[in-house]
C-alpha cells in the first residue's frame, strides 16, 4: 500500500505528469482506464489528446469505464457523463466507442444496472488506472461524505453542495438528484489510482484526504488504503498540507534516484510518504 504525493508547478504540469503515467501503461498493451469527468482531469485529457495527435499515442487497445453517471439522463443528453467524456476526451482519440462504458442512467432498474456495471468492470479484468478528481467536500466519483468505505457501484443521492457545484452545466437549473457511481470499494480495487487536484477550493479536501483519518466524512481518504495511489497537486491544492516540506524532500530524493511517478507500477519508490 502506498500513497505518493507529487507536487506540481501548475495545472498543466499536473496534466503532464498524469499523462506520463497513463501513457506508459497504455503503451504496454491492452489497458482498462477508469475515466473521471469534471474540470480536474481536463489538463490530463488535453495532454493525452496532444500526444495522440503529435506523438502517435494510440488508445486503440484501451477500454474505458466512467466513474459515474446521472440517473435519469439518457446517454445522448448533453450533460450525461457518456456525452461529457466523449466531448472531453474519447472523441479526440482512437479509443473504440464500443469499448467505452458508462452506467446506463436511464435504466428502468437502476439497482440492477449498478450491479451489472460493477460486474462488467470485473469481467474486463478490473481497472488498471483509475483517474480521479476530488470534490471540495472530499467526494470521489459521486461518493458523498458518509459513503461506506466498502461500497460497490450503486444508486446515490447527490449532496446539495454537489448539485450547486454542477448547476453551471444545467442552464435550466434542473440538476438530477440521483446518480449511479462506482463505490469506494470498487474504486479501491483499481490497480493504480491517479488523483489530480488543483485550486485553493480543493486544499482542505486534499489535506483531509492525505493527512486526516480514514473516514467516511472524507470519502477520498479511502485512498490511504489503496494498493497504489498517486496524488498530483498544483501549489494551491497542496497549500494546506502540514507535511508539505516532507513530501517535497521525498519527491526530490525519488527524482534523484530516477524513480519518478511516471513509472510507479514498474518500480517501488525508495521512499514513500505514506
Ligand atoms: P471538478 O469536480 O473536477 O469539476 O472540480 C471534481 C469532483 O467533483 O469530483
What is the succession of H and E elements? EHEHEEHEHEEHEHEHEHH
Q: Kindly give the count of domains.
A: 1
Biggest beta sheet summary:
7 strands, parallel
Percentage of residues assigned to helices: 25-40%
End-to-end separation? 8 Å
Number of helices: 9
Which features does this protein show?
274 residues; alpha/beta; Rossmann fold; seven-stranded parallel β-sheet; three-stranded antiparallel β-sheet; 10 strands; globular; disordered C terminus; binds 2-phosphoglycolic acid
Walk me through what this model shows.
The protein has nine helices and ten strands. It is globular and about 55 Å long. It has a single domain, classed as 3-Layer(aba) Sandwich (Rossmann fold), CATH 3.40.50. Helices cover about 35% and strands about 15% of the residues. It is an alpha/beta fold and about 270 residues long. The N and C termini lie close together (about 10 Å). The structure holds 2-phosphoglycolic acid. 2-phosphoglycolic acid binds near residues 39, 40, 134, 135 and 139.
